[in-house]
# Entry
Amino acid sequence: MTTERIGPRTGADTGGDGVAHDGTAHDGTVHNGTAHDGVVHNGTVHDGTADGGGSEPPRGERNGPADGAGAGSGGRQDGGRQDGGRDGSPGAGGTPGAGGGPPGDGQGPRRHSSWKHPSNRRRWFILFVVILLIGVPAGYIVISAGQSRDSGRDKQARASAQGLTAEWPPRVTRRIYEVPITGYSDDVAFYESNSWNTSKLYVQFTTSENGLNLFLGRIGTGPGELDKGRVTITAEEAAEVGWHLGAGQPSASSRALSTVPTDKEDWSGLVLDHPGPRPRLKVTVDRSNPAHPMVYVVSTVKL
# Structure
């Protein structure tokens, strides 16, 4: 701020008591305040600099209050503001962030995380339930299929290693393969093989003449259907369980009359194809002892 020299007071700019009443410019010079004792106490700043005797700015560009308004306020009326400015800068006596200060200085409202929001928790819960409903059954099916395949392979490997099992097949197995072994049979043994599309049951037993007729009747045929001299079980199937069938082979029955090789007329057989998904039966009978024939059966089920 500059001070301007105070000249002799005249009646034009002083009142009757020697005090300047309005501080206005009468001759093109800005007087900037009221002179009480020859010193300018508080000049008015129009644009951030003391006017100091310069020319008065145009009325449309004045930034200060009206004439005489700042004389009694005792404060600075320049371009700064006492409270926060409109542009966000702190005011003269304000604090940052209180009246439009720099963003982020004050504490804003506390925000919830996305997981804690009720709608997001509901979405995650629904997704979890859907995964359980789809994934658990699918996983169970895959595991069951793998276990079934491995079980079949293990069962076939054990059976191949051990050969025929010298006992009656389970009742359920006999029903599935439709091999109704007659009671009071001897030399009963079985072997079951499984693959991905075919299952076979190998059965042998020694029975009586009546038992043979009963067995043939239960599977839907009779003794007259047996072809003499025919062995219906293939050499490959017989080798699977260690059977020796056909002429020239000794009888394996515990009721055999001798251990001499059998003749072709001692053997007979038939093939029975059931309609639909029922098994295919190959029956071969050793009649070297007519009173106690030995029966060989291979039942095949296509999956």
About this structure: The beta strands are 186-194, 198-206, 227-228, 267-273, 280-286, 294-302. The first strand starts at residue 186 and ends at 194. Residues 162 and 241 are 9 Å apart (CA to CA).
